[in-house]
Amino acid sequence: MTVTQVAAYAAPAAKAPLERTTVPRRPVGAHDVLIDIKYAGICHSDIHQVRDGWGEGLYPMVPGHEIAGVVAEVGPEVTRFAVGDRVGVGCIVDTCRTCEYCLAGQEQYCVEGITGTYNAVDRQGERTYGGYSSHIVVDENYTVRIPDGLALDVAAPLLCAGITLYSPLKHWQAGPGKKVAVVGLGGLGHMGVKIAHALGAEVTVLSQSLRKREDGLKLGASHYYATSDETTFEKLAGSFDLILSTVSAPLDLGAYLGLLRVDGALVNVGAPEEPVALNLFSVIGGRKTLAGSMIGGIAETQEMLDFCAEHGLGSEIELIRADEVNEAYERVLASDVRYRFVIDASTI
Ligand SMILES: [Zn+2]
Ligand SMILES: [Zn+2]
To answer: Which part of the chain is the Enoyl reductase (ER) domain (predicted)?
Structure first.
């Protein structure tokens, strides 16, 4: 078997618009599956990376780590998948597999670092290219099954947005009797609302304005407050067991920590590019936790997909053609999407 060229949308250089091209995919190895990509979600971090927001990128860059498709070929030693299976790939395509975190199913915190689905060099020294493409070859151990109950288009964003919210909600035990606030109602936040509600928690959305209030309540929130209204912080002081911040704009952390109950946690899954300042009395009083969380492990991603299928939770999406991707990026930056763009890979 030889390396094949596959159709893709790539940024040829930093900050350049994406354009149609071809990229190489490795031969299907013993433990690999070849996936015929059907849909790829557009994550905010795709835009950060093609625009060098997170440091120097590798070009041409094919973004996309919210991949849903169908297995087209399997390597001779693949045991978990067969041709025709509906599968997904998220942000991780390899890790060391031997460190304590990999062995515990927390591959996202691998001590050697993850091999990213794109904008990375894999452990064999080859460049990785993401999901804005017709096909991808991935080790079966970093591939997950998409249950029949989930349509592939609304499942794609779960591979990053879904797991990014599911993992901290589970870790901090969101469930019946717990009050959870989600800061920001975008691609990440709307999945946080859906999943927290399905877990049985009482959910509040904290958004800059009340513009998306009706959506928020429909998605599963019981309450919706505008953070631009100063009285919100007085009214809700000491209310929440868990606050998940999905925004990358700088937050007044002290103000949000003030909304937690004793032993509550403020968990960041979005991060501003600049360092933040904090008066530590805002965590000392009330024994509070300021934390972060990054995507989730492979087994946990499977658990999340099974949970979403069981509860009928997909992402709210706007399906686009591949040649609309540059326009979609501008709309994501303007927060003009409800709630995730998904590329129909048949148009690549
Ligand atoms: Zn992402
Ligand atoms: Zn590891």
So the answer is: 16-343
Please give the pLDDT value at position 52: 76
Question: How many angstroms separate the CA atoms of 143 and 117, rounded?
Answer: 11
Q: Which ligand is nearest to the CA of 99?
A: 2
Q: What is the number of structural domains in the chain?
A: 2
What number of CA atoms fall less than 13 Å from residue 188's CA on the CB side? 27
Q: What is the pLDDT of residue 2?
A: 64
φ/ψ bin of 200: left (φ > 0), alpha (ψ from -120 to 50), beta (otherwise): left
Q: Do both 190 and 134 map to the same domain?
A: no
Cα 263 to ligand 1 centre (Å)? 29
Identify the CATH number of the domain in which residue 84 sits: 3.90.180.10
**Using one digit for the tens of pLDDT, what is the confidence trace for 117-143?**
999 999 999 999 999 999 999 999 999
CA 145 / ligand 2 centre spacing (Å):
22
- 126/16 same-domain check: yes
